[in-house]
């Protein structure tokens, strides 16, 4: 039976172009067996009329706070009590701001104030609005209050810009809701994850680094968190917001990253190395800025620790996941790497030009584990992360079961 069977979900819809997607979400929730009622704000109704939602749900849509007839049928307090989960998709920046200060000046905000049910928000807005400190402060405040923030995803936006702010796709939200009612596939599991690049200083102003943006790692941290895991994200220097509910430790060099990881290994069940760790660092760091003198200059480099291989080689290692960026023979090289580093699961991708990988919003992955594999086609990194997180959870539980039998 679906985890959603007979669960009562109040779908809140606020103003934004993503409203058309919540009609599809409504259908998906109903098909999964949930009982759904819909409350729309006035702004939402300017994008799609309540009739669409009414036709899909077969029920009247709740729109008014002070309407005697509506209140007599099922009032806001009753709706607030009825729901097992309130899911607001899309939630606008404005609605989050109103929620964060506890306003109740329309039906949906009044329901949110009157409920004891969990509230999940699926933000959708222009990337600048999402990244604005005012919105981020509201997100933090709402997260601290226990509201669940699902998304947003990154990618092309209706306004023509690209970045964080897209509402999660209806299927991804359905996964979230299912995981919520199932208790989360990784509830009680501690995950340590590295992401981004590292910087290896040459002198006070220069360093060696690489093109890793950290997008895949951050998306995966968020996806694992959504499955209920306690996630510690050890991040190299990146320009990304910390995913909701994730504990972040910032580092610069590979050695700092290794130290941060080792300090987090106690009680760690799953380790995921997404970071593009610099393989070498300058043997010596000049104390002063190096002046240009000779036509040729030689830098002596020494090997950095292999953080992932070291974690996998520990006495009682966690379930280990690594990435392999290859330009050719992806599968063969990745399998070789998986065996050489003795890791449980490897996610490999081609990094040839125009095929995803570093700095892009999309990617495709080939997953390999002992005795199996899966090919994930080109898709948004946020969606890819959700698929990979689900596979990590499944393989982790398979290994734990094997160890216990
Ligand atoms: O050997 P290669 O760098 O291709 O392996 C990539 C995988 O190993 C990634 O999962 C990366 O996070 C991890 N790695 C690491 N420490 C290094 C190099 C790579 O954890 N020094």
TrEMBL record:
Q: Which cofactor does it need?
A: FMN; Mg(2+)
Q: What is its EC number?
A: 4.1.1.36, 6.3.2.5
Q: Which UniProt keywords apply?
A: Decarboxylase, Flavoprotein, FMN, Ligase, Lyase, Magnesium, Metal-binding, Multifunctional enzyme
Q: Which GO terms describe its biological process?
A: coenzyme A biosynthetic process; pantothenate catabolic process
Residues annotated as the enzyme's active site:
159 (proton donor)
Q: What Gene3D superfamilies does the record point to?
A: CoaB-like, Flavin prenyltransferase-like
Task: Kindly give the InterPro entries that the UniProt entry links to this protein.
Answer: CoaB-like_sf, CoaBC, DNA/pantothenate-metab_flavo_C, Flavin_trans-like, Flavoprotein
Q: Name one GO cellular component term.
A: phosphopantothenoylcysteine decarboxylase complex
Q: Which reaction does it catalyse?
A: N-[(R)-4-phosphopantothenoyl]-L-cysteine + H(+) = (R)-4'-phosphopantetheine + CO2; (R)-4'-phosphopantothenate + L-cysteine + CTP = N-[(R)-4-phosphopantothenoyl]-L-cysteine + CMP + diphosphate + H(+)
Region Phosphopantothenate--cysteine ligase, annotated ranges: 191-405
Q: Which NCBIfam families match?
A: coaBC_dfp
Give the record's family classification: In the C-terminal section; belongs to the PPC synthetase family. In the N-terminal section; belongs to the HFCD (homo-oligomeric flavin containing Cys decarboxylase) superfamily.
Its protein name is Coenzyme A biosynthesis bifunctional protein CoaBC
Q: Which organism is it from?
A: endosymbiont of Ridgeia piscesae
Q: Which gene encodes it?
A: coaBC
């Amino acid at each position: 039976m679906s985890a959603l069977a007979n669960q009562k979900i109040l779908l809140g819809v606020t103003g934004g172009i993503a409203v058309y997607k919540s009609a599809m979400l409504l259908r998906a929730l109903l098909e999964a067996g949930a009982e759904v009622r819909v409350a729309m704000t006035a702004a939402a109704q300017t994008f799609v009329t309540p009739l669409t939602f009414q036709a899909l749900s077969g029920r009247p849509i709740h729109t008014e706070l002070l309407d005697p007839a509506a209140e007599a049928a099922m009032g806001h307090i009753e709706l607030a009590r009825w729901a097992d989960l309130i899911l607001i998709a899309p939630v606008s920046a404005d609605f989050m701001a109103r929620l964060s200060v506890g306003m109740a000046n329309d039906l949906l905000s009044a329901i949110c104030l009157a409920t004891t049910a969990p509230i999940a928000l699926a933000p959708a807005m222009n990337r600048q609005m999402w990244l604005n400190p005012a919105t981020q402060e509201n997100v933090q405040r709402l997260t601290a209050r226990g509201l669940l923030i699902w998304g947003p995803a990154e990618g092309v936006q209706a306004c023509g810009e690209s970045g964080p702010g897209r509402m999660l796709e209806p299927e991804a939200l359905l996964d979230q809701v299912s995981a919520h009612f199932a208790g989360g596939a990784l509830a009680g599991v501690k995950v340590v994850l590295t992401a981004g690049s590292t910087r290896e200083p040459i002198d006070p102003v220069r360093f060696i680094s690489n093109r890793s943006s950290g997008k895949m790692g951050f998306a995966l941290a968020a996806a694992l968190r959504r499955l209920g895991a306690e996630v510690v994200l050890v991040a190299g220097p990146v320009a990304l917001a910390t995913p909701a509910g994730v504990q972040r430790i910032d580092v610069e060099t590979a050695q700092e990253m290794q130290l941060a990881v080792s300090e987090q290994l106690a009680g760690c069940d799953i380790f995921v190395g997404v970071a593009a760790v610099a393989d070498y660092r300058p043997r010596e760091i000049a104390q002063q800025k190096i002046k240009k003198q000779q036509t040729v200059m030689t830098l002596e480099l020494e090997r950095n620790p292999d953080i992932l291989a070291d974690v996998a080689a520990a006495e009682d290692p966690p379930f280990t996941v690594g990435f392999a960026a290859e330009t050719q023979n992806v599968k063969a090289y990745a399998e070789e790497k998986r065996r050489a580093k003795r890791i449980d699961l490897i996610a490999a991708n081609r990094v040839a030009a125009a095929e995803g990988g570093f700095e892009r919003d999309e990617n495709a992955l080939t997953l390999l584990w002992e005795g199996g594999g899966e090919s994930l086609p080109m898709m948004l990194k946020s969606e890819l992360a959700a698929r990979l997180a689900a596979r990590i959870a499944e393989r982790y539980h398979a290994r734990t079961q094997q160890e216990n039998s």
